[in-house]
Amino acid sequence: MHLESDIPDWPSCQSTVVRGHQVASGNGEDKRFPEGTLRLQKPFFKEAGLDLTGWHLATMNLSLLPATYEIINPRLTFRQVQWHPDVPPEDFSFMDCRVEDQAGLIYYPHPETKPEHEQPEDVLEVLLPVRLLGIGYSSHVRFSPNPDQVRLKSDS
Length: 156
Description:
The protein is mainly beta. It has a single domain (13-153), classed as Elongation Factor Tu (Ef-tu), domain 3. It has one helix at 37-48, and strands at 13-18, 60-63, 68-71, 76-81, 90-99, 102-109, 123-127, 140-145, 150-153. A six-stranded antiparallel barrel has the order 1-2-7-6-5-8. The chain is globular and about 40 Å long.
């Protein structure tokens, strides 16, 4: 999949890496997904047009506080994805972004169809092709979403 990473004027905000539920990677305690939800969802996403082959199959959870965001025009949206027999179908959207200088995708399970593992309103999950070395919980990173797809809003 081509990533839109060479656009120099995307707005950015400082974000903080926060701990998530760890179900996307399979590092959490949910025994239904020992290899991670992303590994289970990957073939469904590929069939719908998003090939994550070779990507790091874990999300980086970014708190944007004090900024907020508004999703305005996702690059891709997949509706009613039945990716697991014990989980109701979910809607997913994906938007282009950068974390530091690495192109990636915002992974957005729609809250209205997500049955559990909710994220706080200030947190976005990001998929990257590779794991960023030296980045861990509480690290501050520059986050830049495609402004045609996601609008950053500042309280200032």
